[in-house]
Amino acid sequence: MGLKKIKENFFENLKMNKYELFVKVIDYIGNFPNILDGFYINGSGQGYGDYDSVLINSGFNEIDRETSVYIGIFYGDYEERVYYTYEEMFHYFLTYYLENIHCYSNLISFIEQEFVNYTKFIDEAKNYKINLDIKNIFTRDNLRNFLLNYNFEENRYNLGTINF
């Protein structure tokens, strides 16, 4: 099986930037809350359009014996991997969420709890802390607060469990 690891010159290799690739993969898989839920523990995989499959991976990879975060694109026996840092992937998840918050108004509290869990996971896995006040980011967002109140019934189950 051929393997190409892309760690630099992303635009030259992909003809798009890393965030565009991230959005393309998330939109194809189509279940952003579940991707975020399982990503930081065991990764997510799915078939993807012209490709045989796509994998968003985090953690330890048995084949390469490496700990890494990457999007793997499979073409038959050939794989391309685009590498990200944990912080970069967090930034892309957060940006995607804020751009598409209106699509997930009934899952706001669930998604925000997963962001809290993600930052805790990174803090435990790394030698340095993110020190991100995620509660302050979310509570200042007027659109988020409106959607949360408008969809209070759907979010009620998770509202009391967010561990900011």
Main attributes?
7 strands, two-stranded antiparallel ribbon, globular, alpha+beta, 8 helices, 164 residues, five-stranded mixed sheet
Description:
The chain is an alpha+beta fold and 164 residues long. The protein has one domain (8-160). It is 51% helix and 21% strand. The protein has eight helices and seven strands; from the N terminus they run βαααββββββααααα. The protein has helices at 10-14, 18-29, 32-42, 86-99, 108-125, 134-139, 142-150, 152-159, and strands spanning 2-6, 44-48, 51-57, 60-61, 66-67, 69-75, 78-84. The protein has a five-stranded mixed β-sheet. Helix 4 packs antiparallel against helix 5 (108-125) and helix 5 (108-125) packs parallel to helix 8. The longest helix has 18 residues, at 108-125. The protein is globular and about 50 Å long. The termini are far apart.
Structurally, the number of domains stands at 1
Q: Which range best describes the helical content: under 10%, 10-25%, 25-40%, 40-55%, 55-70% or over 70%?
A: 40-55%
Structural class: alpha+beta
Could you spell the SSE succession in H and E letters?
EHHHEEEEEEHHHHH
- Helix tally equals 8
Question: How far is it from the N-terminal to the C-terminal residue, by CA?
Answer: 44 Å
Spatial strand sequence of the major β-sheet:
1-7-6-3-2
Strand content: 15-25%
Q: Could you give a short account of the major beta sheet?
A: 5 strands, mixed
**Shape assignment:** globular
The radius of gyration is 17 Å
Number of strands: 7
Average pLDDT, to the nearest integer? 75
Spans where pLDDT lies below 50 across 5 or more residues: 43-49
